[in-house]
Amino acid sequence: MICDLDGVVYRGAADVPGAITTLNRVLRSGRSIVFATNNASRAPRAVDDHLKQLGLAAGSWSVATSAEAAARHVAGLVPPGSRVLAVGGPGVAEALVDAGLVPVRVGAPCDPPVVAVVQGLGYDVTWRDLAEIGHLAREGVPWIATNLDLAVPTERGVAPGNGALVQVVEIVAGVPPRSTGKPDPAFFGTAQQKLGTSSRRTLVCGDRLDTDVAGARAAGLDSLLVLSGITDLQALAFAPADQRPTYVAADLRGLLRPAARLAVVWTGMVRTADGVPEAAGETDRQRLLEWVVTAAWSVADAGGHLAQNPDPWRALARRLGVG
Questions:
Q1: Eight-state DSSP code of residue 276
Q2: CA 162 – CA 284 distance, rounded (Å)
Q3: What whole-number distance in Å separates Cα of residue 188 and Cα of residue 204?
Q4: What kind of architecture, by CATH, is found in domain 2-31+183-320?
Q5: Percentage of the chain surpassing pLDDT 90?
Q6: Could you give the C-alpha distances from 97 to 11, 42, 259, in angstroms and in order?
Q7: Is residue 27 predicted with pLDDT exceeding 80?
């Protein structure tokens, strides 16, 4: 299994209810997990420690970060030992070191000059950091973003992600970066190699349509979308065809029960109220959730009306126990 972290296993320092218990049961069953995260702020070792502190048991699991993917990409562009501007948390610099490169911070003496830039999430990124990235990008220095996630889940709700800061630089510099994290299929391919599993026996678990699900589909892998992070029920209902997951659940506890593959249903079976699908006669929340999602896709694909107003979707989500 390839499993995302932020919004799936934890939000900030706190774990998502039921996530660790579920993952420990998965590990005890003999399955392997690669935790593949776009959050480049921490090195894999720090993420390991966090997961252990939350109670994740020993087993066949490892961590892969988008910073590692960015560092591998840069290492394929420049000679070993090259100086690379590292903007973001400690995970960015540590990944560059592990790839045989020399990370340099903004303001540090730089002779010879840097030959590339890697930008990842960091909680102390400054205006000077963003300005320097822009200057170098305009000069033609390769600019690699670990990921383009606009938001990241925290204990207090969503906060700006690396993609939000990347957009600031891109607007000013007028050039886009190369992004190496999810949804890049290569990122999933590296994780799958670590697992040693076939595509048919590999499941991607995540909370984002545009990275976890889109990347899984591009890599030919099944996906489980959990509604414990960024994506809410309304966003899932309006998901374009290339970002629709194979399965859906309120959270990772959905791994412990039978799941139905999501598929568009005949629109004649769908009733709506206030612009949201209405399911009658079903009391199982998981089955209700699956029905609502597939019914919404059916209505959308047929050109029918779904509510743009978030209020009825929020009310339905409360009924389903998601979000």
A1: E
A2: 38
A3: 9
A4: 3-Layer(aba) Sandwich (3.40)
A5: 83
A6: 28, 14, 42
A7: yes
Selection from 148, 268, 201 nearest residue 1 by Cα: 201
- CA 142, CA 261: separation in Å to the nearest integer? 41
Give yes or no: 6 in active site.
yes
Using the predicted structure, report yes or no on whether residue 107 has a pLDDT greater than 90: no
pTM: 0.89
Which residue, chain included where needed, has tokens 């791994």?
Answer: 255
End-to-end CA distance of the chain: 23
| E strand or H helix that includes residue 26 | helix 19-28
d(CA 280, CA 262): 19
SS3 content of the chain, % helix, strand, coil (to 5): 40, 20, 40
CATH 3.40.50.1000 in the chain is located at 2-31+183-320, 68-179
Task: Name 37's bridge partners.
Answer: 65
Q: Which of 4, 129, 149, 251 is catalytic?
A: 4
* Token pair recorded at residue 258: 């039978």
Q: Which class for 238: exposed (0-12), middle (13-18), buried (19 or more C-beta within 10 A)?
A: middle
* CATH class of residue range 68-179: alpha beta
Higher pLDDT, 207 or 280: 207
Q: Give the HSE-up count for residue 116: Cα atoms under 13 Å, Cβ half-sphere.
A: 28
